[in-house]
Amino acid sequence: MADKEKPEEGEAEGKPKGGKMKKIIMLLLVVLVVGGGGAAGGWFAAGAMGGDDGKEKVDPDRPKLVLKDGSTVDDVPSADEKGAKKAAPTSAYKVSYHQIEQPFTSNLRNSNSFAQVSLAISTYYDERVVQNIQDHEIAIRSAVLMVLAEQDRMELETQIGKQMLQKKLAMRINEVLQEKAGFGGIEDAYFTNFVVQ
């Protein structure tokens, strides 16, 4: 019986148990599983398996351009337009105006003078832009007053100075709307009343 328990000397040396080979195979399997999972996750995150057809998804709550016939269209640039500023042929769209009800009054920079202006805006987009203006009127009023306070009386006495202020106000209102609502949509700002004293 003792002979069966004890392997012969030639057998022990010539027959490997396979422990090292099993460890190598297991290690390779773990590397393949982890690497494959990472690659699949990266591929999915990049959109390859997400069913993305290359088109930008349109937010259903995003304001739409209004054509002159009253129909609406999405304002999403195609893949070849990305990065280039899109110039809309404004003659194809219906312009809407909105009067901001309360006037803006602010002291002017480096003087005892003040300006009081009433504003209206124009947009080629649907009523959601006007709704965004109403929803965020306090933030817009604050931004407009800050821009007014930066103005110099002498600049505001010229037509060019007033036109530059209009552009600054339209740009600033768009920035506020972009920050608060995710979309600007203001084309121009107009003075419906303008007093400097």
Briefly summarize what is shown.
Residues 51-87 are annotated as: Disordered. The chain has 197 residues and is α+β, with helices and mostly antiparallel strands.
Protein traits:
alpha+beta; 44% helix; two-stranded antiparallel ribbon; single chain; elongated; four-stranded antiparallel sheet; Tetrahydropterin Synthase, Chain A; 7 helices; 2 domains; 197 residues
Tell me the β content: 15-25%
Kindly report the oligomeric state of this protein: single chain
Report on the biggest sheet.
4 strands, antiparallel
Task: Give the low-confidence spans.
Answer: 77-87
Q: What do we call the CATH homologous superfamily of the largest domain?
A: Band 7 domain
CATH class of the largest domain: Alpha Beta
User: Which H/E pattern describes the elements?
Assistant: HHHEEEEEHHHHE
Given the helix and strand composition, which structural class is it? alpha+beta
When the domains are counted, the total is 2
> Mean pLDDT, as a whole number?
82
- In the CATH hierarchy, the architecture of the largest domain is 2-Layer Sandwich
Which range best describes the helical content: under 10%, 10-25%, 25-40%, 40-55%, 55-70% or over 70%?
40-55%
Number of helices: 7
C-alpha Rg (nearest Å): 34 Å
CATH names the topology of the largest domain as Tetrahydropterin Synthase, Chain A
Tally of DSSP β-strands: 6
How would the global form be characterised? elongated
The N- to C-terminal Cα distance equals 119 Å
Keywords: Cell inner membrane, Cell membrane, Cell projection, Chemotaxis, Cilium, Flagellar rotation, Flagellum, Membrane, Transmembrane, Transmembrane helix
Region (Disordered): 51-87
Organism: Parasphingorhabdus marina DSM 22363
InterPro entries: FliL
